[in-house]
Write a structure and sequence with these properties.
Layout (H helix, E strand, L loop, with lengths): L2 E6 L7 H12 L3 E4 L8 E5 L2 E5 L12 E4 L4 E2 L1 H10 L6 E4 L3 E2 L2 H6 L3 H7 L6 H9 L10 H4 L2 E2 L1 H10 L4 E4 L23 H8 L8 E7 L1 E4 L11 H6 L14 E4 L2 H11 L3 E5 L1 H4 L14 H14 L3 E5 L7 E3 L5
Parallel strand pairs: 1-10, 1-11, 2-5, 2-10, 5-7, 6-8, 7-9, 11-14, 14-15
Antiparallel strand pairs: 3-4, 12-13, 15-16
Bound molecules: guanosine-5'-triphosphate, inosinic acid and magnesium ion (MG).
Length: 335
């Protein structure tokens, strides 16, 4: 498939980073291009003894020579991006779009107000205020930044050229479907739409150029920040069952509920999913830890995957069985 779009099906943190790094590593994508909001995202990628914590760069960092691009819809925090480029020595692989706009100190400060940080429970990374300034057409673009200006260009042009040449492009979404400004649990949402259509618009490819839409779910539902979460488990039960998680960006405890089949079905429709990934099967069923073959799963784990396929109406092609990039069951017969 020349172009694959990966998005989150719940409230973010579904493990997109790990799934993306797995597919870019095994399928050799020529380009990975990021859409989504900005550095409010936090992907954790574990590979070859290294743990990558990524907020701005695409998750294909661990698989050179894949080129790493950031689409014009994405907000850039220069400090965060330049730190990541330096830390992972990937400067020669990076291109940011010249129309990306900047997050400034004042946006971060405003994001820590009572309304945003307190009522909505934002990540405090400045993305909401920076997007509102962008809508007011007051924002600064990356071209005003000395160092970023040197790695800026026309991402949409490049990505479409790669597709014209039959090259493989991976389009990376961030956050999750029900954090979408339009389709989520408003007002407890992020500052943009983050469904597959919006992610394509963020990077500048038209809907007819997409071959595969992979929607990623975790084997249970998690949410950080405020807003409804049906069936939310009490903290004592989360701890007793060993499900405790903390956010990559804020360190906040993630709220947890059982897998929400109803939301998953809505997410499949909103994103027009062609196939699904389910991560953290090993957390729900510890006996599946590290397995890489579907037939070696226990009956109860297979029953869960089959129930997802039946109730969501889309096949599960990738299953995460551990944090390491290689801990994946890839059902090639499905996709
Ligand atoms: P956002 O872009 O912020 O929405 O994040 P994300 O979807 O990339 O997910 P994030 O990395 O924030 O959270 C997923 C966590 O689960 C990370 O700590 C991963 O290392 C871990 N993880 C991913 N897949 C698996 C899996 O299959 N099993 C286990 N045990 N851990 C996993
Ligand atoms: P903001 O995007 O920082 O404005 O936060 C708005 C809501 O989206 C809050 O509930 C955040 O916790 C949530 N959020 C934003 N980005 C992510 C993410 O990448 N993973 C999980 N939750 C997120
Ligand atoms: Mg995250």
């Amino acid at each position: 498939m020349p172009s694959t779009v990966v998005v989150g099906g719940f409230f973010g943190d579904e493990g997109k980073g790990k799934i993306i790094s797995y597919i870019t590593f095994t399928e050799k994508f020529d380009v990975a291009v990021r859409g989504g909001v900005g550095p409010n995202a936090g992907h954790t990628v574990v590979h070859g003894g290294m743990t990558y914590k990524l907020r701005m760069l695409p998750s294909a960092v661990a698989s050179p020579p894949t080129r790493l691009m950031i689409g014009p819809g994405v907000l850039i925090d220069p400090t965060v991006l330049l730190d990541e480029i330096q830390k992972y020595s990937v400067g020669s692989r990076v291109l940011v779009d010249r129309n990306c706009t900047l997050i400034e100190e004042k946006h971060i400060y405003a994001d820590r107000s009572d309304h945003l940080r307190g009522k909505i429970g934002t990540t405090g990374t400045g993305t909401g205020p920076a997007n509102s300034e962008r809508v007011l057409r007051n924002a600064k673009t990356v071209m005003t930044h000395q160092e970023l200006g040197k790695i800026a260009g026309n991402v949409s042009d490049e990505v479409n050229q790669y597709l014209d040449d039959g090259k493989r492009v991976l389009v990376e979404g961030t956050q999750g479907t029900f954090l979408s400004l339009y389709h989520g649990t408003y007002p407890f949402v992020t500052s943009k739409d983050v469904t597959a259509s919006a992610i394509c618009s963020d990077v500048g490819i038209g809907p007819k150029r997409v071959d595969e839409i992979l929607v990623v779910f975790k084997a249970f539902t998690t949410r950080v920040g405020e807003g409804p979460l049906e069936g939310e488990l009490p903290i004592e039960e989360i701890e007793r069952r060993g499900l405790t998680e903390r956010g990559t960006v804020t360190g906040r405890r993630r709220r947890i509920a059982p897998f929400d089949f109803r939301l998953a079905r809505v997410a499949a429709v909103l994103n027009s999913a062609t196939n699904l990934a389910i991560t953290k099967l090993d957390v729900l069923f510890p006996e599946t830890s590290g397995l890489r073959d579907f037939d070696s799963l226990t009956k109860r784990a297979i029953k869960f995957i089959e129930e997802v396929e039946l109730r969501v109406g889309v096949k599960v092609s990738l299953i995460g069985t551990g944090p390491e990039l290689s801990e994946v069951i890839h059902r090639k017969e499905v996709a």
